[in-house]
User: What shape does this take?
Amino acid sequence: MDSISKADLTPLFERFRDVFIAERDRLIALDGKVGDSDLGLTMNKAFLAACDAVSANGADPVGRTLQLAGMAMAKAAPSTMGTLLATGFMRGGKALESASAIGTAEMSLFWTAFLNGVSERGKAKRGDKTLIDVLAPVAEAFAAAAANQHSLAVLGDHPLGRFEAFGGGSGGASTGDGKAVLLGGGSGISRRGYIAVFNPE
Assistant: This one.
């Protein structure tokens, strides 16, 4: 698939929702090492709300729909992590306001805006062992892919080798200290949707 259409967003967010339902206990255990063990609950609330918002939105284009997903997250999960994710989706969606579908160039715009939004809101930078350490390589990978005019169909089969530095494999990656983890929703970095989660405390 060369692009993600508005119609593709509902099944994509259903996949996100299902991943965080399945990974709830794992996230609680990871968060328990450095936080208050509520990360699994936060992510469930955030993506249940986002999925409902996306599914209910039939009229708006992709960018606005992603912004609404972020707004739903902010309302449902007003914790530090929920707020950061919400900011990312709202910023990313705003960057795609004029897009009719999401191709590689739009993915680059989305993840760059997502990264900048989270960085500004969380006042974190690369190397702090937070979500930024996982998001930055994602944004860079899509920027390079867009510059080289690669399609999402090509990127959909790209392995997660970019994230080996975090100690993970093709199913996910982490910073090794329980602060950041990349959960995989499939075998590629684009169409199936990977999402990074972390404990910001």
